[in-house]
Amino acid sequence: MKTVLIFTVLGALPAILDAKSLAADSVAAPKVKVDLYYESLCPYCRRFIINQLWPAYQKVKEILSITLVPYGNASEKKANGSYTFRCQHGANECYGNVIEACAIKYLKDFDAYFPYIYCVEQNITKGPEQAAKACALNKAINIDEIMTCAKGDEGTMLIHVAANKTKSLTPSQYYVPWIVLNGVHTESMTKTATTDLLRLVCDTYKGVRPTACPKRNGVVG
Asked: Which N-terminal stretch is annotated as signal sequence (predicted)?
């Protein structure tokens, strides 16, 4: 009986070790980092957020770390100690950018502010403030602190910070959406990201592939 028990335990060891190895791989693998430098009214940015970034986040957010920087091709001018901004798609875009920057600050958690920004981007052509208020109501968000921020010096400084982040990129940003994957921007990566971000994230991830990932070599996950 003792011999049988020893063999049974020893026979189970490979399975136990494999399970531990898989768990360790899952824990140890860093999330895939996607940094998006964008403009609130840019049609290509909106398309990327709505059709690529949001679905990827919904399906594999456990392996995905996203940073949003709303500035893009805007320009900044400092006069008399204060900053003013000019945006590619006009004043409404500048307003949308600052609303989203304030939402990021005050909603704090990505799982709170990204669904909100996604909603705003879906509706922003109706007007940034209208979209901001409608989405806040829909998601039971207190809009007051976001709008106070967006209409004051605090919002201006948040956009100044976004401007500095954008200007510090290497290589330099010159179009939007500007996508950085794990700290690197390339044209080929951007082309893939804007057409199939989910697959790109899954193929980049070094840990156990989530079951929500698309097939690779005929195998799911």
From this structure: 1-19
